[in-house]
Amino acid sequence: MRKIEGVLLNDIHTYKDLGLRLLGIQIDPADPKLETVSVPMSSSRLNLAKFLNPDIQYEWRNIVLSFDKRDDYHMWAFHGSNIKNLFHGQEVQLILDSDKGFYYTGTAIIETSKENNVFCDYLVTLEADPYKYERFSSLEPWVWDVFPFNGGIIRNYRDLEVNGTMTLLIPGRRKKVVPVFDCSSAMSLGYGGQTYYLPAGRSKLLDLQLGEGEHFLTFRGTGKVSVDYRGGEFIMYQIFCDNSLLYDPRDEDNPILTGKVSLTVNATGGADIFPAAHAQGDRPDP
């Protein structure tokens, strides 16, 4: 019997759990973010984005999934409401049966229509992050049933013993990632000709971003270290106050959703940030 393909939406399988038969998948390319200006008296254009951030940034893109389902009009109304209640307007994680080693994330929009008494149609549009992510982080055990042998990477960076010196090789992917370190005791880290201090407990080095290629991290000390590698944030800008870092987009623990800076001549300016419950939110105006 031919296997019917589907997708997982927040761990709910569209065919096995909902009876939706997958008809088509469209994954739009992610457009690069460009800020171009014309050069006077020239046919050239300058892309200012690369001066703000040398790494290419991307817009979110659409992923469109089309399904049908055998239902009469009464059951279509019932099942359609249930499916919309599950996903419409929700943040979802999408895993394709044909690409089980990775997931996409985004906001789902559900549309459904019916033109006869036998079948109904469903359209799921995901406004998605431009990247797909490894399904399992370096701290999670691999599930061999979903391991992608074409391009898959087995990562096991939990509780690595450091007794003097230990070197860890991390194969990187396209998106630059700031890994999270969890050390049982303080130790040092050597990478790219630089030496960094890692305190006991969880920490990040915001200047250490691992992109494509092989990355050799050398730990020195005594104890155990775990390296959580998956995902990452785009670098757009940083906010400082009196030389103290208030905001870095690579730090998920201290987000700023909106902000407004007021500048005045020969007087002290100010900054309003949201959320106000920021780690540095009680600092005085700069």
Describe the structure.
This protein has 286 residues and is mainly beta. The chain folds into three domains: 7-35 and 46-134, Elongation Factor Tu (Ef-tu), domain 3 (Beta Barrel), CATH 2.40.30; 151-228, Sandwich (Jelly Rolls), CATH 2.60.120; 239-274, no CATH class. 7% of the residues lie in helices and 44% in strands. It has two helices and 20 strands. The protein has helices at 49-52, 73-87, and strands at residues 7-9, 12-13, 21-27, 36-38, 45-47, 61-70, 91-96, 99-114, 119-128, 133-134, 160-172, 180-183, 187-191, 194-198, 201-204, 213-228, 239-241, 244-247, 258-262, 270-274. Strands 1, 2, 3, 6, 7, 8, 9 and 10 form an eight-stranded antiparallel beta sheet that branches. A hairpin with a 2-residue loop joins strand 13 and strand 14. The chain is globular. The N and C termini lie far apart (69 Å). Residues 232-236 and 262-266 have low confidence and may be disordered.
Helicity range: under 10%
In CATH, the topology of the largest domain is named Elongation Factor Tu (Ef-tu), domain 3
Low-confidence stretches: 232-236, 262-266
Look at the helices and sheets and give the structural class. mainly beta
Task: Summarize model confidence as the mean pLDDT.
Answer: 83
CATH architecture identity of the largest domain: Beta Barrel
SSE string, helices as H and strands as E: EEEEEHEHEEEEEEEEEEEEEE
Strand content is: 35-45%
Structural domain count: 3
Number of separate strands: 20
Oligomer: single chain
The tally of helices reads: 2
Which CATH first-tier class of the largest domain would you pick? Mainly Beta
Task: State the end-to-end distance.
Answer: 69 Å
The geometry reads as globular
User: Which value, in Å, is the CA radius of gyration?
Assistant: 24 Å
Largest sheet: 8 strands, antiparallel
Protein name: MtfA protein
